[in-house]
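Thread: Newbie trying to understand structure tokens

Hi all, I'm a second-year student working on a class project, and my supervisor (Dr. K.) asked me to get a predicted structure for one chain before our next meeting. I've only ever worked with sequences, so writing a 3D structure as a token string is new to me. If someone could post the tokens and maybe explain what I'm looking at, I'd be very grateful. Here's the chain:
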Amino acid sequence: MTALQTTPALAEQHAGLMPLANATLAQLDQVILGKAEQVRLSLACLLAGGHLLLEDVPGVGKTTLAQAIAASLGLHFSRMQFTSDLLPADLLGVSIYEPAQREFRFHEGPIFTQLLLADEINRATPKTQSALLEAMEEGQVSEGGTSRALPSPFFVIATQNPASQLGTFALPESQLDRFLMTVSLGYPDPRAERELLLAGGRRDAARQLSAVLTPKALLAAQQAAAAVHVSGALADYVLALVTASRLHPDVQTGLSPRAALGLLSAARAWAWLAGRQHALPEDVRAVFGSVAAHRLLGRSSGAASPAVAAQLLATVAIP
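---
Reply by user tm_fold:
Sure, no problem. This is what the structure looks like when written as tokens:
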């Protein structure tokens, strides 16, 4: 695999985006305290053009992170609370007959935005969850035989409560595969939590953030990340990880070619955020758990297994 072709002018433009990306990370770190790695993974996910699944117990800042990302990137933001009675039309939109015009007029749903927060996505029924599939894969919505393009860029950040909690529906494998990364915030460390208590929370701070990047600059940053060079040896390392996942005795279904491509895209974005124009095995290892864990379903439990992802990194040799 090779990097995308870049002209000197484009390379200069890409270099000018790095200070903005670093400023974005710094601003997000001021809101999501003590979670620098998770914040960096989240931004790398969007730079790679992927959708993000935030999975954790309620109250650890998942929604605040999504709001802070939208504000920092200057993206039009919509939030949809997923519940068991939510219908696909509530999300996508619906055509309503208007007698004055004697025609049906399509009324856009909240999905017509640049960043959609699907809050507590696993509290909706599988039918409503599946309504997101076309939007996340194709960047469009089909209704009444007509395909309607979504804004560009378009991202879904979904939050998910643990499956053991009441009122949740497990995301099907096809839906999980549409998320490039899964990130778990976890509880803050004592120092960060003390600062959070003294400040009275950070949600208001997230709403008041100013845009560091614009949507146009974000698209340029995505191009810059996609242009990061991947050597043949690094591609072989990714292939070895993917192959090992398919042969692992505890894994029901190994990583797909889509997952392998996503892993390389995420590694490129991680390398670009580090200021490099070439990806290293360290970049692959940094993003592997977030890209792979939710796709590696165990044979016995059927649940995602972060432990298997760690085993693969420990056993597959680095070139």
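A couple of things are worth pointing out once you decode it. The domain at 228-319 is CATH 1.10.8.80 (Helicase, Ruva Protein; domain 3). The first helix runs from residue 8 to 31. Feel free to ask follow-ups in this thread.
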